[in-house]
Write a structure and sequence with these properties.
The chain is α/β, with parallel strands linked by helices and 358 residues long. 40% of the residues lie in helices and 16% in strands. The protein is built from twelve helices and twelve strands. α1 crosses α6 and α5 crosses α12. The chain starts with a helix and ends with a helix.
Length: 358
């Protein structure tokens, strides 16, 4: 197993080679992903650029230092199974990078909803001298890992999928009674606004509408000291400008139109955008393509975060001086909603730190 310095150098090398414009393997995967209608061209481009901006020597070493990862306290000797989600492009990249960087042996189950992109990165890792002889494996069907006996499992998905996943892991003898699980089921984030400035509105639109509102970092709940109707014109204009550059890939079913009609009948404040709905109040979270608006302040935001518990991921703010009571470790700036740092903590848990302590 390569030591920590070798792993850092190899992963930086692999990432640079992977994102190189002359990488034909990534280009083919990109084209296939778009052609076979998994994600839009614009959303894949955004995901790749976000990784390019996030991964560098400074960010990797900062992550290593924060997690207190060293050659004496790494995860070497552990087999780690990463069950990657596929709701947005390359959503599993951080788990893969963290596992390999930690010193654990990586085994990845690639999502059928995003089958091509992540393997091109893993192939670049395998090409480096540090990992050329390492047992780095990934598959598309979990049964191929039958008998693995993993020490830890990283999983992100919906709550309703957890029992099925655990059943499959037991069925194929992939885990034992000592296997540790890091299960992440958050599926939306919140924005707590201070002002309706053009910059705030544009950042909010990116946070809501990138990836069609999919992903745990996507804003599905807004708390603001002003009502939706006060900025609906500016918000609608910003949304249409965003869609001109990044059209929404998936379209909602008829249920969304039914909700819009119901809201209209009961005179509930809403902004109807044909393929997306923003509505004031009525926090049901029972279908996609809806963002909810609450008139309130940071205290209300904290109460809602507490109410929704593990369903909720991050709280985005527009003023760095804003403090969300009880959620300091889950607070980020709104402009980073859809381009997180590589060392961000899903559910407030540092993945590397968890791996070396599990």
């Amino acid at each position: 197993m390569a030591d920590l310095e070798q792993r850092i150098d190899a992963l930086l090398e692999a990432t640079e080679n992977w994102l190189n414009k002359d990488n034909d393997y990534l280009s083919v995967a990109y084209d296939q992903t778009v052609r076979e209608d998994y994600f839009s061209f614009e959303d894949v481009k955004h995901a790749l650029l976000s990784i390019k901006n996030a991964v560098n020597e400074s960010s990797i070493r900062g992550w290593v230092d924060r997690a207190e990862l060293s050659d004496e306290s790494d995860a070497s000797g552990n087999n780690v199974l990463c069950l990657h989600a596929g709701n947005i492009p390359l959503v599993g990249f951080q788990n893969a990078l963290a596992t390999i960087l930690s010193g654990a042996t990586y085994y990845g189950k690639i999502s059928r909803k995003d089958p091509y992109l992540l393997p091109t990165f893993l192939n670049e890792v395998k090409k480096t001298d540090a990992f050329s002889s390492v047992d780095l494996q990934w598959v598309h069907n979990l049964e191929h890992f039958e008998g693995l006996k993993s020490d830890a499992v990283l999983f992100a998905g919906s709550e309703r999928s957890v029992p099925g996943v655990k059943h499959s892991i037991q069925k194929y003898n992939i885990a034992n009674r000592n296997t540790k699980y890091l299960i992440r089921t958050a599926h939306f984030s919140m924005a707590c606004l201070d002002d309706p400035s053009p910059e705030t509105i544009n950042n909010l639109v990116e946070g809501i509408f990138r990836y069609g509102g999919k992903g745990c970092r996507s804003v599905a709940l807004v708390v603001a000291p002003f009502g939706l109707d006060e900025i609906s014109n500016e918000l609608e204009e910003s949304v249409h400008s965003f869609w001109e550059e990044s059209p929404q890939h998936k379209k909602p079913g008829p249920k969304l139109k039914h909700r819009q009609a119901y809201n209209k009948a009961v005179e509930q404040t809403q902004l109807w955008l044909e393929d997306f709905l923003i509505q004031e109040g009525g926090l049901e979270f029972d279908q996609d393509f809806i963002c909810y608006w609450i008139e309130g302040d940071k205290h209300q935001a904290a109460e809602l975060a507490e109410q929704f518990g593990e369903q909720h991921q991050s709280i985005y703010i527009t003023n760095p001086d804003t403090k969300i009571p009880g959620f300091g470790d889950r607070t980020e700036h709104l402009e980073n909603a859809q381009q997180p740092p590589i060392n961000w903590k899903p559910d407030g848990v540092d993945t590397i730190e968890w791996l070396i302590n599990c």
